[in-house]
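Batch job 17 of 40 flagged for manual review because the log was empty.
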Amino acid sequence: MLASLLMAYAVRFDFNVPPDHLRVIPFVVLWIIPFKLAWLFVFRQQLILPSAFGIPDLSRLIYSTIAATASISLVKWSAVTPYCPPTGVVFIDLLFSIVSLVAIRLILRVRRHGLRTWDSSKANPPRRVGIIGAGEAGMILAADLRGKRGLGLEPVAFFDDDSTKWNSTVHGIPILGAPELLTDVAFARMHLDEVIISLPSASAQRRRSIVTLLQRTGLPFRTVPSLSELALGKVQVSQLRTVEIHDLLGRPPIQLETENIRSLIRDQVVMVTGAGGSIGSELCRQIANFNPALLILVERSEVQMFAIEQELIRAGHTGRIKPLVADLLDVKRMTSALVQFQPKVVFHAAAHKHVPLMESQPGEAIRNNALGTAQFAELAMKHDVERFVLISTDKAINPTSVMGATKRLAEMFLQSLHAANPGRTKLMAVRFGNVLGSSGSVIPVFKEQIAQGGPVTVTDPEMTRYFMTIPEAVGLVLQSAAQGDGGEIFLLDMGKPVKILDLARQLIILSGLEPDKDIRIEFVGLRPGEKLFEELNYEQESLIPTPHPKIRKFSAQAAPISEIRRILQEFAGIVYETDADRCKLLLKRAVPEYTPSLSPAARRALGNATVSSVDLNKPQALSLGERS
């Protein structure tokens, strides 16, 4: 400050300050310097870490110096003291003050990010990086890489689809043209070591074309995090990762009405069953961020419980989580939990979900998915839970699998129970399709097959599925729970169906290999319980829009609760049996639209008989010569 003021006097008088001004300079300094420092304190400049100086800090610094200059001018014009500098000195001093203060901070920042790692940079020359995308994310990434030399990455070129940006520079880095230039032999002289895709908001189609292009160049490539990850503040632009399949399938970022979700969860006791599973664990992550009074994690697998508990502890949620290793079917244990913690919102994600596995043991799926849900829903209503949300599936629509049929039966029970008890617990279900990367899903299986050298096994060339990311699905589940009034079945907008064959090809390409050349794709046919195409709703269900554009709901006439309870009582007597056909046929009676996959012996025994005409309480009724 002192140097700026003295330099202002020198410049104002052409480095020949008159004697009468020289005599008053000490008195001017005595009040102006404390005055200017006081304004810097008012704008909290003493709290800024100089080596982390940024644009917001620059703005506040300029405001503080302008405020000081305005105050000095006011004192001068009001003639409060004779010891005032000339007007020219005041405004020259403003310029010098800003320049000197900013310069000091920038020098310290450069010293921290640049010089500190200079020696290591010389010992290990940084990798030359090309960045695809000269938008906001690309600019932040380039600045971050330049500032953090310890990362060992030096951006040397930008590539962008916007032709108006070509032949200009960003942070001194040239924007050479479109990404397609990377395949031009003329650009081989750039000697790039790596390419970073910085297109967090680009369409899935454009990302796929860029990945294909980069595969042809042979250059290794990575990507910045997705727009949703950046928006949630989970990661920074410079936290690079490999390109994943969800980047190529990509869907537009979903805007959640977070205030509605926050009002549902904040300061409430919330319970999540199946807390260690793919959906359950993500529910726990997102719910914890909305500051519940207590988040109760119910999971019967000790290993899975430990993993999600430790993750939430590392995220800073130690004081608001309570893990319960418990079996949902244990009535006494679950009753005790409901009485002790009195949750107001329950998300029921516990289920058997693997389609082929449940076909051979339908009794377990019925016991867990249908009987367990019904039992727990009644307990929740008895103990005054306000909202009960079942995680369902699109496989519950015209089911061909035991898993889908048991989920449909659970939906039917919730609708009937809510209709029979209006004004009590709001019972609802949320249906959605496959989630990318969940345990047992197709993507981890394909990745393992690719790692082993193939073949990659695809059911059928025409098989399609709807896919969502786990965070996206869970966000919409929370949104549905916030807007539900009870009795609804919500359907999440799952976009367009994706061919499983295309999915397999994209995963092989992402692994740096060529489909049908390096890795063979083999078609194995439909497994028991599988469909070629998933459906969205039953004909008798009326599809109704909701306030959120990505969520719709169904309304259908609920069956009498006494009828559903009678059906469940029938199941209670056979779920421990190993006769898969009897369980499936009884499930067919309960869910008429279910098309069971029966053994050849059962199909022969039934002949032209209807399921309703067979006494399923007598094993010999099927006259099976060979047991299924």
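Reviewer: the log was empty due to a logging misconfiguration, but the result itself is present. The chain has three domains: 2-113, 122-243, 258-555. Unflagging and moving on to job 18.
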